[in-house]
Amino acid sequence: MTRPDSDTETAPAGASGGTQSLERALALLRAVASHGAEGARLADLMGDTALSKATAHRLLTALARERFIDQDPRSRRYHLGPELDSLGRIAAARHRPEGDVPAPGPATVQPTAFLRPDYQGEAIPLADLLCDRHARADGARAALLHESVAGQTTELSFARLARDSARFAAVLRGLGVGRGDRVAVLLPKGAELLIAALAIWRLGGVYMPLFTTYSAAAVAYRLADSEARAIVTTGFLRRKIPRDNSRPVVMVEGDEAFGPGADAVPFWSALHESAPLPDIARYADRDAFALMYTSEAEPKPLGVSLPVMALAGIEQYMRIGLDLRDDDIYWNMADPGWAYGAYYGLVGPLLLGRTTIFCDGPYDVRQGYRMLTKFGVTNLTCAPSQIRAWHSADPEGGPHKLALRILSVVGEPLPPELIGWANRVVSVPLLDQYGQRETGIFMMNRYDPGHADRTADSSLGRPLPGFRVVILDPQGREAPVGGAGEIAIDVESSPLFWFDAYANDPGRTAARFRHGRRYYLTGDWAFLDSDGNIHFRGRASDAIVMQ
C-alpha cells in the first residue's frame, strides 16, 4: 500500500503531502539544471537537495515518466527532459522583451501531459505498463488489499501478481486463447480477478468482465455476442453459464458444494502446475484490451471496446480528476464489473502502480466505516447511493474519525441536500463528476466545504483538460451561452477522446455521431453559462450513463 513518506526531510509548516512532493520535485529540477550539459548523478542531487536516496529516486522516476527528466542509459546521469523544452519555449515567447526575434518554428504544447509515447504506436507492452514495471521497481508493494466480509485482509504484491499472471497466461494459452480473443471473467472481487486480467493482457487478449449479479440470460447474451473464447468463474457462479456452453471453463477452487465440474480446469492447481509464460504480447494503440457491456436493463446491451490509447485519459482522470497524490490511500468502491470500477478501480491503480482495495459483499455502512478507518483511506470515490446510505444511517453525525482528504461521486447528479450534508459533515472537498462508458469521466464539479454557501445548481462543472465539451442545438450547431441543447464532445479538439464504435450495433454508433464524426453526442441535455459551467437538464431516452 502507498503510504506517506517516512523520510526525515521537512517542509514548511502546514504544507500538505502533495505540496511537499511538489516542492521536492521542483528542487530536483533546479538541481539537475544547475549541473548543465554534464548532467547530475543521483548522489549529486541528494547532496544538493538533502533528500534521502529513496525519496530522490522516487521523484526522479515520476519526473522521468512525465518527460521532465531524462537519464542517460550509459552514464546514468540525469538531464532536463523534452517536456521542459516545449514548456520553456512557450514561456520564453510570453516573457520575451518587445522587439526580440522569436526562435524559429512554432512552439506547441500538448493539452495534457499524459499523451506520452507509452500509450502510442504499434508495440505497446500492456502487461508491463500495468504490472511488470512496478514489480521491477518495488515488487513488495501491494497491488491488491482484499477485505473479506468477516474483516480478514489478504495482500497480493506486484511481484506475486507478475508471477501468478505469467503462469495463468500459460494456462489460458493452453486453452487456445491468443491475440484479440475475448475472455469472459465472471468472478467476485479478489486476487483471481487481477491475475486473470493480467494473464489475458499478457496474451494480447481482451478482458471482458461480467457483473456477478447478472441473470443467466444476461450472461448467455454477452458470451454469445462477444464470441468469448474462454470463461473464468467459480463453482457457484458457473450456474449462470448456459448448459450447452462449449467454451473452455476455468473454475476457482473453493466452492466444493457445487463441485469442480468434470470439464472445468481448476484455477489454482493449473496455475501452479504451469511454467510462467516468458513473453508479453504487444498491442497497437487502437487495439481493444477490454470489452464492457451496457446495463442489463438495455433491450440490446451494447459492447464498448476500450482501446490502449484510453490509458492516457485514465491517467489524466486519476491524477487530475481524482487529485490522486503520492501519499493518498485510494479506494474506489465501484464494482469492477461496471465501467467506472474497471477503468478507475482496476486499470487505473495498476497503471499508476497503486494499491487496489477490494471489499467483498454488498455495500453496508458499517463495513464501509471499517474499511475507511482500517486502511486510513484519504481519497475515496463512490456512487451517490453510498452517500445516501451514509446520510440515512447517521444523518447528523456521519462518518467519524476519518482520514479522508477528498471525496468523489459519480453516476448521477448529486442532489443539493446531499452535497450540503457531505460538505458539512465529512468536511472535505466533494467532487461531483460526469462521464459515460464510451468516454470515461470528462467533466467534474468541485464543492468545497470552505465555501458552503455555494449554491448546488445542478451544474456538471467544466471539462477535464484534453476534452472540449459543447452544447449542440437540434441542427448540430454549437449553442451560444445560455442556449439549451445536447451535451457533445468536440472530437477534433479532444485528444483524450477514444470511442470509435459499438462492437455490435452500427445503428447506435451512427446515432452517437448523427451530426458527423466531429461531435460525439451524449444523449444528455444541458445549457452552458457565462462562466463555462454546463448545467444538466435531463437525460434523453437513449442516453447511457457511466456505471
Written description of the protein model:
This protein has 547 residues and is of the alpha/beta class. Helix content is 32%, strand content 20%. The chain is built from 15 helices and 22 strands. Mean pLDDT is 86; it is low at 1-16 and 101-110.
Secondary structure layout plus pairing:
Layout (H helix, E strand, L loop, with lengths): L16 H18 L7 H8 L3 H13 L3 E3 L6 E3 L1 H14 L30 H13 L3 E6 L5 E5 H17 L7 E4 L5 H12 L3 E4 L6 H11 L3 E5 L14 E4 L11 E3 H7 L14 E6 L9 E5 L3 H11 L8 E3 L6 H14 L3 E4 L5 H11 L3 E4 L1 H10 L12 E5 L5 H10 L4 E7 L3 E8 L11 E5 L5 E4 L11 E7 L15 H7 L6 E10 L5 E6 L8
Helix pairs in contact: 1-2, 1-3, 5-6, 5-7, 6-7, 6-9, 10-11
In order across it, which strands form the biggest sheet?
12-14-15-16-17-18-22-21-20-19
Largest sheet: 10 strands, mixed
Spans of 5+ residues with little confidence (pLDDT < 50)? 1-16, 101-110
Radius of gyration: 24 Å
Could you state the oligomeric state of the chains shown? single chain
